[in-house]
Structure formats: structure tokens, C-alpha cells
Amino acid sequence: MAPRAANGLREYVGCVRVHTAYGDGVEKLPAIVKAANTAGLDFLVVTDTNSVHYMTAGLEGWNEQTAVLVGQEIAGAGGHCLALGVKGDVSDLRDRPEACLDAIAAQGAAAIPCHPHDPRVPLAPGDGSAWSKGNTGKVHGVEIWSFMHDWRAGVSILNRRGRVKHPLRHLKGPDSRALRLWDELLQQGPTAAFASLDAHGYRRRPKSDLTAFSYSDLFGTLRMHILVPPFSRRWFEDKQVILDALRRGQSFIANDGLAPSNGFRFEARREDGSVIPMGGSAAFEPPMRLRVRLPQRCKVRLITGGQAWFTNTVDRFDVELTGPSVIRLEAWLDGHPWIFSNPIHLLPASPQVVS
Fold first, then answer.
1. Does the pLDDT of residue 114 top 50, yes or no?
2. For 140-158, how does the pLDDT look when each residue is reduced to its tens digit (9 = 90+)?
3. Which residues pair with 341 in a beta bridge?
4. Which residues in 229-306 belong to E strands, given as ranges?
5. Residue bearing the bigger pLDDT, 197 or 119
6. Kind of pairing between the strands at 325-333 and 288-304
7. CATH of segment(s) 265-347
8. Which residue, 132, 228, 242, 253, is CA-closest to 181?
């Protein structure tokens, strides 16, 4: 059973940005879903490049314990962008990012620019991809951490084998430029943070013992945890619950291969005990406190506007809040990146009109 959270919510865990053999992965969807079930995933988001094949084939839905959603990764001249919740293919606009973003919005879907500062996408060096640059009102989130892009950074012929055998040791966490972009977007309005696997699978080579990037291995690493009402097991309801939670940032990111993160909680509380959860927005009404609970002691940083204003090694704490702010949390375990929360938005109270 999924762990309970405040206000009757449950915690569910899943993986985003998974490629199949219909795109540029190595396994067909049934084998990937079997691995997801074995890994205990509650949801799986498949995003083949410029394809919605498994959506049109009618293969979305519950498969044992795993909800299988099919989105799309748009890859074109402007870089890469996830389209989650699309009802049909929008990849014909892949070389026109702004028009493609409009098409995604017209379908009621969410647009998530991928690895916005990948040096191998030199369209806007140092400034982010064309999907996020100049389109801040049209994106709903940003990918701040990609397992495979993180792992590839700094890889060479000399260190490749060691990195393949022990990939978690070499993860550095979200790119600092992606975090800066996210913090800038947050100043303009709610923007959800995403982590992805960019999983393509790994086909064992003859006489090789290296299998580190199989779907099974990756499904236990970089995951997204959502906090939502209990699933109904009615597909279209649950699908929308998952998509809404991801889009609104009712979630946190965790490298569960480092240590289990289930039970992490980050919320603001009013004096009457009511809760503003991750992804939530509310007027700042003092007195308010920030409540943090972690599965184990680790180094914690609270961030507002890109600046850390609280740093400590703890497993739980409460902080008095002093004014409107957009607050997010980073947690590092033994020097390794572990948990990154989505923010809580505390807004200035509306002025009272005196008649």
C-alpha cells in the first residue's frame, strides 16, 4: 500500500521518459512494463521520440500494479521537449518549437523541455534550449535532472567501464544551469521540476558482464514521487490524476538507488493545522511554519530565488516562515544528490478593500 501523506493523500512512485524498441530503445513495451512491475513502479511514462505508437495501439492503461502512460518526446532543430497528456502526434512541428508548444497546449497537454543545457545541443549555448528560451509562458515544467545525461557528463574511454559498473557513484545531480533556469521560471509562475531516466535499455554484448543500463536497473534509480488521492483503478481518472500531479509539481524527485526516499514530506502549515503541499500555492498568512520530514539524516538546503537560506544536517525540522516566498528543498546524502522537492508558493496576501 502506498504511504499516507497529509490530507488523505497517498505517495506513489514512477519513472518518466522511457524509450521502447518502437523508438530508439531496445525492448518492446510488454517487457518494459514487466520490469516496471517487478521494480514496484506505480506509474510509468513512455515517451518514444516523435512517436505515439503505443497510444494509438491502445496500450495505455493499468498493467498489474503499474499505470502505463504514453506521451511523446519531440526532437527537432530546437532540441528536445516532452509532451505529456497529448491525444495525438504533434511531432510534425518539431522544427518549430513555438508552434509545437501551441499544439501541445491545444491538446490540454504539458510541455516539458528536456536537458535544456546539454552541450551537444548547441542551438543556444549556455542559455537553454529553444523550447524554454523565450517560451516561458508556454512550458509547464523543466527537466532539471536526467540520469543518462548526468552519467555521460565527463565520461571517457579511460573511465567508461568503471562508470558503467557503478553508475550511481558518478551522478552529480541536476545541472547548475538547469537549476538557475528553473529558479528564474519560478519567479514568473509555477513551474514543475522533472527528473527523467532517458532509458533506452542495454543489450548485453557478447562476453560482457556490463548490464548497468537495463530497464530493470534504471527503474530503481531516479524516480518521481507524487502525492495524490488514492488511485481508483478507473483508468481515465487515474491517468488524469497522475498527469495533473506531475504538471502541478505535486511531487518530488529522488535517487532511490542511493537510499529509499519514501516518506519524505515538505509542506507549509497554517496555525489551524491546514497544509499547503509541494506544488501548492496559498497566500502567506502568519503565523506559518515549514515542516520537513526525511527518511534519514542528510544535508538539507532550503532555496528561495536561487539562494540558500537554511543549511543543516537533519532528519526533521520545522521553520517559522516570515513572508511570501517560493521555497524548494535539496537533500544530499553523504555528498551525493538525493532528493529535490518541487516548491511551495506562498503569495502576498490580497489587499483588503475598505469601503
1. yes
2. 999 999 999 888 887 788 8
3. 252
4. 251-255, 265-270, 275-276, 281-283, 288-304
5. 197
6. antiparallel
7. 2.60.40.10
8. 132
Residues of the chain with CATH 3.20.20.140: 6-255
Nine cell digits for residue 70: 504514453
Report the 10 Å Cβ neighbour count for 231.
19
Q: What is the DSSP string of 150-180?
A: HHHTT--TTTHHHHHHSGGGG---S-HHHHH
b/e 84-117 (16+ beta carbons within 10 angstroms → b): bbbeebbbebbeebeebbebbbeeebbbbbbbbb
- C-alpha distances in angstroms, 338 versus 61, 142, 165? 30, 18, 20
- Residue 124, sorted as left (phi over 0), alpha (psi -120 to 50) or beta, turns out to be beta
Contact present, 66 and 74 (Cβ < 8 Å): no
- Looking at residue 126, its pLDDT comes to 38
Q: Which CATH number fits domain 6-255: 3.20.20.140, 3.50.50.60, 3.30.1440.10, 2.40.128.50?
A: 3.20.20.140
All 3 cell numbers of residue 307? 539562494
Name the grid cell of 124: 543556444
Among 264, 262, 268, CA closest to 330: 264
